[in-house]
Amino acid sequence: MATSAHAEIDWKQESGSKINLLLISHPFVDALKPLLPEFTELTGIEVDFEEFAEQPGFEKLLADLSSGTGTYDAFMTSPLNNWQYATGDWLEPLDAYIDDPALTDAAAYDMADFAPGILASGRWTREPMAGMGEGPLWGLPINFETYQIAYRPSIMKELGLEVPKTYAELLEMAPKLSAEGPNGPIYGVITRFDKYWDLPYLTFGTMLQSYGVEMIDADGKLQICSPESIAATTDFIELIRTASPEGAGAFTWDQAMQGFAAGQYIMSVDEANLFAPVYEDPDQSAISDDVGYAPTPLGPDGERAAGAWVWSMSMNANSGDKAATWLFLEWLTSKETMIKTHLGGNMNPVRSSAWADPEVAALVETWGEYPGQYREVAEEMAKVAAVRFPPHPELTRMLDRWAEAIQQSYFDEGNVEENLCAAQADVEQMIGN
Q1: I need a labelling partner for 341 at 20 to 30 A (CA). Which of 15, 109, 276, 358 fits?
Q2: CA distance 316 to 90
Q3: Distance CA 184, CA 294 (A)
Q4: Comparing C-alpha atoms, which of 130, 202, 139, 189 is closest to residue 381?
Q5: How much is the pLDDT for 100?
Q6: Cα separation of 192 and 275, whole Å?
Q7: Which helix (H) or strand (E) element contains residue 151?
Q8: Ramachandran region, residue 357 (left: φ > 0; alpha: ψ -120 to 50; beta: rest)
Q9: 292 with 163: CB under 8 angstroms?
């Protein structure tokens, strides 16, 4: 296999340059940091970075991009965020760099090795509500996540319970999901539930989609306060009130990951499958020898759907050294480097060659209640995972409003239908602006 180090380009052509990255705290970043000296040795390009939690990181990035300062040459992002950035002319299209033989060895880089749908999520025509998967390439994928159940096999057996196959079964067993642990009570369910766009887009969004809810239906009508959305939201709130502790309405993704890894919960519901490396690592997890994985539950009509998230790297249109930045992006997303990040905990692969790598396959083989369980569940969920939201530069603001309505219904014990319909009316105005 051709590797980045043997690609037929001059890796030293930008030697002496310096680039700056904005990174979001994530297992990918933990896997990347030890590899950065390899890039500098290969290219002579120095790499500095700043690392932030998700929300403050995106706020810092937005301030830099919108001001045109160009502080960050490249940054972690996603298709969702790039719909805003591309509309503002803040992103550098990447196709020309890929097509330049002086900068990219097409055979070694092998664009066809990327999963087609995941790579296509980085393309957009910049036409609001249309054109996703078409037009310029604004970002290169570095990992992919969808959602699953993680559970404690030993406790489920003690309670005489089977992993739920439907949301109805989950709700029925919710009052029984409790146990006593060495450090106090073990609660039933954890999942993120903060007032942030990822709630309806990803995790609870997976439940919504399995109830048949899409943000906009085939006729172009919003479905935020559809009967299916009201039913899913009502059931979700009942589940959290029944099986989660106080404070569950403010849990972020990292609190959800760490809470389950600490052994404080019996089940992690509809959370990211790329948390598995943390769960399986005895240095980070109290339950590394007692964790299983299962697909997300089926909805009321027997259907399963799931959200999808693609972390990507993009280039700032105001970067002061675009050639050096591209060499970094090429090296980072090469077959060789991607495999190294996966072995360091960056799940899930976006290249076919990574899934086919014997070390990557061996790494995940032992994950779960039985050999091969994690990969079996990940492959099952990949069949139903998709980005089912319309591309729009204001989508995060719309989804924040939707998340606010869900939280209002939980904290204030308000009327779910009234809260969701008020949110829908506000989102209609945002789309019209």
Answers
A1: 15
A2: 6
A3: 26
A4: 202
A5: 98
A6: 13
A7: strand 147-151
A8: beta
A9: yes
- How far apart are the C-alpha atoms of 314 and 96, rounded to whole Å? 14
SS3 percent helix, strand, coil of the chain, rounded to 5, is 45, 15, 35
Neighbour-count burial of 388, counting CB atoms closer than 10 A to its CB (0-12 exposed, 13-18 middle, 19+ buried): middle
Structure tokens that stand for 240 in this block: 């959290």
319-357 burial, b at 16+ Cβ within 10 Å, e below that, comes to: bebbebbbbbbbbbbbbbbbbbbbbbbbbbbbbebbbeb
Query: What integer pLDDT is reported at residue 429 of this predicted model?
Result: 94
pLDDT at 2: 42
Measured between alpha carbons, how far is 339 from 287 in angstroms, rounded to an integer?
26
Give the pLDDT of residue 5: 57
- The tokens describing 56, both together, are 């403050």
DSSP 227-274: HHHHHHHHHHHHHHHHHS-TTGGG--HHHHHHHHHTT-EEEEEEEEGG
Predicted confidence at residue 335, as pLDDT, reads 97
- Residue 123: half-sphere exposure toward Cβ, Cα within 13 Å: 11
For residue 109, the model assigns a pLDDT of: 97
Is the distance from CB of 410 to CB of 204 less than 8 angstroms? no
Q: pLDDT at position 433, please? A: 54
State the pLDDT at residue 4.
60
Residue 274 · residue 26 · CB < 8 Å: no
Segment 337-358, tens digit of pLDDT: 999 999 998 989 999 999 899 9
| Burial group, residue 44, by CB count within 10 angstroms (0-12, 13-18, 19+) | middle
pLDDT of residue 331: 98
338 contacts 351 by C-beta, under 8 angstroms: yes
CA proximity to 377, closest of 282, 264, 256, 279: 279
